[in-house]
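haha ok so turns out i had the wrong file open the whole time. this is the CORRECT one, sorry everyone. sequence first:
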Amino acid sequence: MNRRWVDNEVYFGPDRRKGGLGKRWGDKRAYDDAGEPPPLGAVMRRLRVQLNGISSPEERRRVYELARFAASEAERQHLPECADHLRNVLNAIVAGDFTAADASVMQAQAVFNGPR
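then structure:
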């Protein structure tokens, strides 16, 4: 699985670009904004911030994708209880209950930050 990650104003997610022949002659793009995936704690903090003030379907979709990534990252790090709370966030976002989603993120953060 590709572990490179893109986080910019247009796209947040895994780097889906395929390795090819390289840049075309004359292509001036030098900056590659793909990097390592963000830490789970940072993703959950970002999720809480973005849950406030959702006003459009596009914002709802972005927050849903961020929550889906957080749940899969928690599973990858073998944190099943944290992943369960983050899956509850997904259900709350679909239902439009952003208060319950925020509460579930706080519970996931408590599990993540608790004693290991």
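The longest strand covers residues 5-7.
again sry for the mixup
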